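During the reporting period the student researcher (J.K.) took over the structure-prediction task from the postdoctoral fellow and processed the backlog of single-chain submissions. One of the processed entries is reproduced below for the supervisory committee.
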Amino acid sequence: MKKTVLFICVHNSGRSQMAEAYFNRLAQGKAQAISAGTEPADKVNPVVVEAMLEVGIDISHNKPKTLTLEMVEQAERTITMGCGSDTACPVTLTEMEDWKLEDPAGKTLSEVRIIRDEIKIRVKQLIKDMQPG
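J.K. obtained the following structure tokens:
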């Protein structure tokens, strides 16, 4: 079974969607990512969709998902995004870390690009860290 990484943010409309998309593109099928939120929004942030299209990744059909116990149990690693002091993010029994990233909600496209690019850097490092040897 493939290793699974779970990306969690409160609304699952920005950061975690970008991280899931980058991970699934960059892991090249060797592992998979899913994302979810504790209080999912109605849709993915349109500015986030635009920023990801700029790098050739279309997340326009993605829908924010509610975090489930099954998702948490399937994950080998769990990454929360900006939940450091937020009680809305869960505690899990898997290896977990928090990426303190700004929420793209209400940000301009140029501000979202900075968040997007930081997520890509962190996802690349995560994939590298997960490789055996």
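The committee noted the following: The helical segments are 15-26, 46-53, 69-74, 109-130.
J.K. will present the remaining backlog at the next meeting.
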